[in-house]
Design a protein that fits this description.
The protein is α/β, with parallel strands linked by helices. The protein is built from 5 helices and 10 strands; from the N terminus they run E-E-E-H-E-E-E-H-H-H-E-H-E-E-E. The longest helix has 17 residues. The protein has a domain of 61 residues. The strands form 2 sheets. Strands 6-7-8-3-9-10 form a 6-stranded mixed beta sheet, with helices on both faces. A hairpin with a 2-residue loop joins strand 4 and strand 5. The protein is globular, with a radius of gyration of 18 Å.
Length: 225
């Protein structure tokens, strides 16, 4: 099991690209020799150029991609362990268009996930200004409203790890700043270890604990913020 000081441990991680053009996957890693740790409740911001492997790393942390080498341990479990509760807001938000906002938010519980209390869920929905939108469908919402619905679904889960892939990329600067403030408010009330890919400058009050920057040739920097 991981020590309390190291809730999330990535050790010498290698993730391969899918094979293409007759080239085997093992000859084309997209991430290699990556190592870092996060304490429980910490917030890691991931930066890097397009195509450098940021979303690939999040998919690996979510247990959706296998490690070709090295390991990922989260709360003592492998990333794909059924005992681990991970909430993942992917690009595009992943809302089902044939379900209402309320049904989308409740979906993880219907799939066997552990949800917060009904009172906490109501509070999260109110904080994200979604109370009057729960009977509407995603395609009738603005981009900002869909983004808030995806955040509500993530926070209404009793997750151990929250992954966010460019959650505010479709918003203008003002709307993104408002969304960051809502994220801060939720993290303060419902602390959860968070890993977020973003190109936006974070407001001072939302500054991440650590910043991981992926660089060419499998180099990276990791700094305390």
């Amino acid at each position: 099991m991981s020590s309390p000081a190291s809730f999330l441990t990535v050790s010498d991680l290698r993730i391969n690209r899918p094979p293409s053009g007759g080239r085997p996957a093992e000859d084309a890693p997209i991430i290699a020799h990556l190592s870092f740790t996060l304490a429980q409740g910490e917030f890691l911001q991931i930066n890097g150029a397009s195509g450098i492997g940021k979303s690939t790393l999040l998919n690996a942390l979510a247990g959706l991609l296998p490690a070709a080498a090295g390991s990922i341990t989260i709360g003592g479990y492998a990333a794909n362990d059924k005992h681990l509760a991970t909430a993942y807001v992917q690009q595009g938000y992943g809302l089902l268009p044939w379900k209402t906002v309320g049904a989308n938010i409740a979906l993880p519980g219907l799939l066997g996930g552990r949800m917060r209390s009904e009172a906490a869920q109501r509070h999260i929905i109110e904080t994200l200004q979604l109370t009057d939108l729960c009977t509407r469908y995603p395609q009738t919402l603005s981009g900002g409203q869909r983004q808030r619905a995806a955040l509500a679904r993530a926070f209404c889960q009793e997750a151990q790890l929250l992954l966010l892939d460019e959650p505010f990329s479709a918003l203008d600067a003002d709307k993104a700043a408002e969304a960051f403030e809502l994220l801060l408010a939720l993290r303060e009330q419902y602390p959860v270890t968070t890993v977020m890919v973003t190109h936006h400058a974070l407001p001072r009050r939302l500054a991440a604990h650590k910043r991981l920057t992926l660089l060419p040739d499998f180099q990276y920097t990791l700094e305390d913020v």
